[in-house]
């Protein structure tokens, strides 16, 4: 597995920064954001399999899932095949996502314009939270 991309600013330059709870931790060189991914060569926890399949159903692309979860898009494709997941056809809207730490999430949720009319979904992601919204509900 190659180095992941920063989930915060999509920068490709990340450096290893220790191992936390058996997962490799990285720091983004650009925005200094810390994030963790599964340790290389380790059997991937079902937690991530389920999370990946959830995102797949939500309409998030394989490449985006790779970027968000730090698991290869090939693995995600294999799980989709293995568990016979068929995502409903959806050409009308696509999800957008944001990654927050707990404090940022609270700040974001305080603003009621951020929480209304976007079909919001929050899911835990390592030591961060991901919030998914659907463009269809905007405006
Ligand atoms: Zn970054």
Describe the structure.
The structure is a single chain. The termini are far apart. The chain has helices spanning about 45-60, 60-70, 75-80, 100-110, 110-115, and strands spanning about 15-20, 25-30, 35-40, 95-100, 120-125, 130-135. Helix 2 packs across helix 3 (about 75-80). The chain is globular. The mean pLDDT is about 80. By secondary structure, the protein is an alpha+beta fold. The protein binds zinc ion. Zinc ion binds next to loops.
List the helices and strands and how they pair.
Layout: E1 14-20, E2 23-28, E3 34-38, H1 46-58, H2 62-69, H3 73-82, E4 95-100, H4 102-110, H5 112-115, E5 121-125, E6 128-134
The chain binds zinc ion.
**Fraction of residues in H or I helices:** 25-40%
How far apart lie the N and C ends? 40 Å
Structural class by SSE content: alpha+beta
Q: Globular, elongated, flat, extended or rod-shaped: what is the shape? A: globular
Helix count, DSSP H or I runs of 4 or more residues: 5
Quick description:
The protein has 139 residues and is α+β, with helices and mostly antiparallel strands. The protein has 5 helices and 6 strands; from the N terminus they run E-E-E-H-H-H-E-H-H-E-E. Strand 2 (23-28) and strand 3 form a beta hairpin.
Features:
139 residues; 3-stranded antiparallel β-sheet; binds zinc ion; alpha+beta
